């Protein structure tokens, strides 16, 4: 069996850099485009950076936690056989969201989100947002601090902190979750099929400026945001069998 070529990457933190140096001595390191598996060392933020930079390569990604939060990462254990862990790992295929934005200046901006797309008010004025699903208005006016659309992988992050539902992988659904809604008071969001096309229209954008963010890519002064699941993009994350991503989501659902 051919030994897989690893692209070893690390966040700037000291622990990740030290682990990187040790792993390079043992396994060497290839450029991501020449590797068989990409191995980021860090937290979830660094994992998302890696997916955004190298997801287009369609290489499996086996991350190890050497940061503050590592929901998308495996545990780092220096004494373990990394190659054996990768060989035994289970895949989880993630489809990102595609965000298409129109701004007040007339610019059009697109970006991908593996966790969530969120709209947020830019000033003290609450945002007023109309929500359309597949071209049909479902909510004339949401008065809020913001609103987001989250993937199952991202449902345990910002979405959950905004009281959105945790979604199981493979359910082919997304979470539409308001952020500090004022009107309508009793609307707590919705669970949508993954193929749903969601359009957010910002009402009175000059008086009530609103930004849109796909993971960490922010666009300010938006007037309209279209979000849909990307059909032609996917990434494969690799997880240790004893603690795969589906199991982690179940653990989060029963956490007290």
What do these coordinates show?
This protein has helices spanning 14-27, 44-54, 82-88, 158-161, 245-253; strands at 6-10, 37-42, 64-65, 74-75, 90-94, 97-103, 108-113, 116-121, 127-133, 136-150, 173-183, 190-193, 198-202, 210-214, 217-219, 222-229, 235-239. It is elongated and about 60 Å long. Strand 9 (127-133) and strand 10 form a beta hairpin. The protein is an alpha+beta fold and 256 residues long. The mean pLDDT is 93. The protein has five helices and 17 strands. 18% of the residues lie in helices and 40% in strands. Strands 6, 7, 8, 9, 10, 11, 12, 13, 14, 15 and 16 form an eleven-stranded antiparallel sheet that branches. It starts with 5 loop residues before the first strand and ends with a helix. The protein has two domains: 6-94 and 234-253, Rossmann fold; 97-229, Tumour Suppressor Smad4.
Radius of gyration: 20 Å
The poorly predicted ranges are: none
Number of strands: 17
Corresponding CATH superfamily of the largest domain = Probable inorganic polyphosphate/atp-NAD kinase, domain 2
Percentage of residues in helical conformation: 10-25%
What's the CATH topology name of the largest domain? Tumour Suppressor Smad4
Please state the average pLDDT score. 93
- Secondary structural class: alpha+beta
What fraction of residues sit in β-strands?
A: 35-45%
Spell out the helices and strands N to C.
EHEHEEHEEEEEEHEEEEEEEH
């Amino acid at each position: 069996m051919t030994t897989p070529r690893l692209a070893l990457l690390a966040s700037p933190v000291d622990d990740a850099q030290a682990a990187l140096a040790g792993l390079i001595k043992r396994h060497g390191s290839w450029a991501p485009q020449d590797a068989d598996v990409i191995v980021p060392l860090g937290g979830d933020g660094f994992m998302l950076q890696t997916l955004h930079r190298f997801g287009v390569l369609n290489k499996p990604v086996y991350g190890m936690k050497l940061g503050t939060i590592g929901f998308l990462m495996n545990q780092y254990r220096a004494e373990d056989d990394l190659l054996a862990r990768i060989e035994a790992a289970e895949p989880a295929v993630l489809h990102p969201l595609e965000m298409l934005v129109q701004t007040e200046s007339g610019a059009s901006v697109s970006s991908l989100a593996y966790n969530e797309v969120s709209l947020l008010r830019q000033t003290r004025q609450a945002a007023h947002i109309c929500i359309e699903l597949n071209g049909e208005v479902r909510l004339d006016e949401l008065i809020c601090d913001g609103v987001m659309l989250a993937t199952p992988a991202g449902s345990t992050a910002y979405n959950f902190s905004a009281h959105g539902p945790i979604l199981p992988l493979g359910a082919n659904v997304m979470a539409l979750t308001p952020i500090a809604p004022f009107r309508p008071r009793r609307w707590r969001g919705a669970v949508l099929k993954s193929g749903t096309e969601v359009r957010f229209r910002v009402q009175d954008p000059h008086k009530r400026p609103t930004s849109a963010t796909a993971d960490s890519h922010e666009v300010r002064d938006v007037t309209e945001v279209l979000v849909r699941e990307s059909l032609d993009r996917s990434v494969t994350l690799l997880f240790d069998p004893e603690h795969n991503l589906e199991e982690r989501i179940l653990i989060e659902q029963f956490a007290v």
